[in-house]
Design a protein that fits this description.
Blueprint (H helix, E strand, L loop, with lengths): L1 E4 L4 H12 L3 E6 L2 H13 L3 E6 L7 H13 L4 E4 L15 H28 L3 E6 L12 H21 L4 E8 L5 H8 L4 H10 L9 H12 L10 E4 L7
Parallel strand pairs: 1-2, 1-4, 2-3, 4-5, 5-6, 6-7
The chain binds 1,4-dihydronicotinamide adenine dinucleotide.
């Protein structure tokens, strides 16, 4: 039984589809209710087992309700994918508003803490399991004008390791995934809105030695691996899936 946050779009939707195709029952959650329900129905139409719940990952009230509903409907929870996140836009540090900073930290980092805090006990009761936190290459290396995003994803990297150490005795593995630039609405949306979007897209591509953006399915494959018994001796690790971006 897997819970995937931010599952209405991009990497979360691809991950939910991939886990369901491998036989997992998947609870999709998101603030985007309409599209989240569509993805869950598509999974069911393809023969998978899935359901959707409206869920704001920044809400301390939402998390216990979500976990309780999963247990009520499906009996247990083995896998948590903390995927929901936002880019937050470009901000120079000299003029960065604290509200914009807090929003990014809240959605990208506080959410992972809340997910661990409230889903962890249920996974422990199930006898252990796997938590996969979606960080970023920008949780390993910096980029200008994205201080809040880099700080939030760097926080996810180390929060993951702290949780892995604390929960090893409980049989809960905790790992982070670090995607390069992947072709999802988070990346394509802002580019499509720009007059020189193609130019910037090509510049981003040129920073990836494999010379293309990643596909959501390629991140879903990495999450599937970390969710499965094939990764049974891996905990506290950073799985980089970035077309070689951080090898340079
Ligand atoms: P996306 O924008 O396609 O999907 C993100 C989903 O999260 C959306 O469905 C959105 O409604 C949901 N969401 C946003 N705020 C939420 C909240 N407060 N509560 C619940 N759900 C919320 O983005 P994408 O690309 O699929 O990103 C998924 C994760 O992967 C994010 O954590 C992102 O930072 C990370 N990532 C993405 C990369 C990329 O190139 N696309 C690269 C590295 C990391």
């Amino acid at each position: 039984m897997a819970l995937v946050t931010g599952a209405a779009s991009g990497l979360g939707a691809a991950t939910a589809r991939r886990l369901a195709a491998e036989g997992a029952t998947v609870m999709l959650t998101d603030i985007a209710v309409e599209t989240g329900n569509v993805v869950a129905h598509e999974i069911e139409a393809a023969g998978g087992r899935a359901a959707f719940l409206s869920h704001d990952v920044t809400s301390e009230q939402d998390w216990p309700r979500i976990v309780a509903t999963v247990i009520e409907r499906f009996g247990k929870l083995d896998v948590l994918v903390n995927n929901a996140g936002i880019g937050g836009g470009r901000h120079e540090l000299l003029t960065h508003e604290i509200e914009a900073w807090r929003r990014v930290l809240s959605v990208n980092l506080d959410s992972v803490f809340l997910g661990l805090r409230f889903a962890g006990p249920a996974i422990a009761v199930a006898g252990g399991g796997s938590v996969i936190n979606i960080s970023s290459i920008l949780g390993k290396v910096g980029v200008a004008d994205a201080a809040a995003y880099c700080a939030s994803k760097g926080g996810v990297t180390l929060l993951t390791k702290a949780a892995a150490l604390e929960w090893a005795p409980l049989g809960i593995r905790v790992n982070s995934v670090h995607p390069g630039f992947i072709d999802t609405p988070m990346v394509s949306g802002p580019l499509d809105d720009l007059e020189n979007g193609d130019e910037i897209r090509n510049m981003i591509i040129s920073r990836h030695p494999l010379a293309r953006l990643g596909a959501a399915r390629e991140i879903a494959d990495a999450v599937l691996f970390l969710a499965s018994d094939e990764s049974s001796y891996i905990s506290g690790a950073e799985l980089v899936v970035d077309g070689g971006y951080t090898a340079q």
